[in-house]
Amino acid sequence: MLTGKGKGMNKVKMEDSLGVVITGGTKGLGYALAEVFISVGDRVVICGRNPQRLDEALYSLQLAKPYGVVYGMVCDAGNPQDGKALAAFAASRLGRVDRWINNAGTAGRLKRPLWELHADDILETCTTNLSGSIMLCAEAIRLMMRQPSSPEPVYHIFNMGFSSLGAFFSRSAVSHKASKRGVAELTQFLSGELKEAGITSIGVHELSPGLVQTGLLFQDASEGALRLFKIIAQRPEKVATVLVPKIRAITGRSSRLRHQPPIMMLIKLIIEIKEVIGIGRYFLLMKKQAGMPRRQ
Fold it and tell me: Does 266 have pLDDT greater than 80?
């Protein structure tokens, strides 16, 4: 049995160690998820488009978790050949892939109205988010179908799409919102296809991390939006510590895993705003009192 603790969770027995693939795992939430999976004793493959950033992420993970098992390769989620190579790489390094997390995504280079976006920007966003998720799901299923079968889902794929509510409140470009809504539909339709085909070993799920403090969220945000995000958005490390146990314990064909219910985010926002307003009033009162003449 592995000893020690990581991120507040007990390490798992060697026979319970999972093989995990995380796309877009070189920074932000993907990196944080990888770190927590490694902490509990799972074997992890990460990938990213930037070779230098991939090397830095692998070095950082290996330095932080010297007894952990982590591999990485350069992979563009929107490139079909890269997807095939990633699946082959994961199978050769992990032996068995139990969890595949399609985390790679982009909001585009600019947050602008559709008619102000360049065609290349639109294509890259939709290809990475939607086409990439579709192609990677296909590769993950082909890989998992070659593994020992089961009457119940034991291998699970996770996609990060937008709910209708999430897309409504997002201030990102139309190409981002539309492609992420498509990812949500992909998850639903793919689960139905697996059921119709009688493939019982694989589950497909939607992963909803909520608002996470990443460069993707802060990109082109106004000063007011930045203040709001810092109040209601969570750090990637905190989100990962909540999501990883849920991902590891998942059962069934299709479900939606949330970091926290939307109502909790709303409650937190109300509490934080009340505290900010209260503090503001306190300092305003103190300022007024300091300026008042003393009684003789």
Answer: no
